[in-house]
């Protein structure tokens, strides 16, 4: 199915839901909370992007002068 046809069908469904009164309309608080929740998931909730273990850089090699 073409993207244009898919958009047309989705648009009709959205209009029908609003006419019927069953469509969800976001409040400012709901939208804010959803955005915050999505941001935490994408960053792992730690305020930074999650780097897969395979892409992490290894720890630096110890200096030759360090005692072990």
Query: What is the residue-mean pLDDT, rounded to a whole number?
Result: 78
How many H/I helices?
2
Going by helix content, strand content and strand pairing, the class is mainly alpha
Number of strands: 0
Q: What is the radius of gyration computed over CA atoms, rounded to a whole number of angstroms? A: 24 Å
Query: What is the string of SSEs from the N terminus onward?
Result: HH
Q: Give the N-terminus to C-terminus distance in angstroms.
A: 65 Å
* Residue share in β-strands: under 5%
Shape: elongated
> How can the largest sheet be summarized?
none
Low-confidence stretches: none
Question: Percent of residues in helical segments?
Answer: 40-55%
What would a concise description of this structure say?
The chain has helices at 3-20, 28-43.
Describe this protein's structure.
Helix content is 50%, strand content 0%. It has 68 residues and is mainly α. It has a domain of 39 residues. The model has no long low-confidence stretch (mean pLDDT 78).
Key terms for this structure?
single chain, 0% strand, 68 residues, 2 helices, mainly alpha
What order do the helices and strands come in, and which of them pair?
Layout: H1 3-20, H2 28-43
């Amino acid at each position: 199915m073409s993207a244009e046809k898919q958009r047309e069908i989705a648009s009709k469904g959205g209009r029908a839901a609003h006419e019927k009164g069953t469509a969800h309309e976001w409040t400012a608080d709901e939208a804010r909370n959803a955005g915050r929740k999505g941001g935490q998931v994408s960053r792992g909730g730690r305020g930074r992007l999650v780097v897969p273990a395979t892409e992490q850089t290894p720890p630096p090699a110890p200096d030759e002068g360090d005692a072990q």
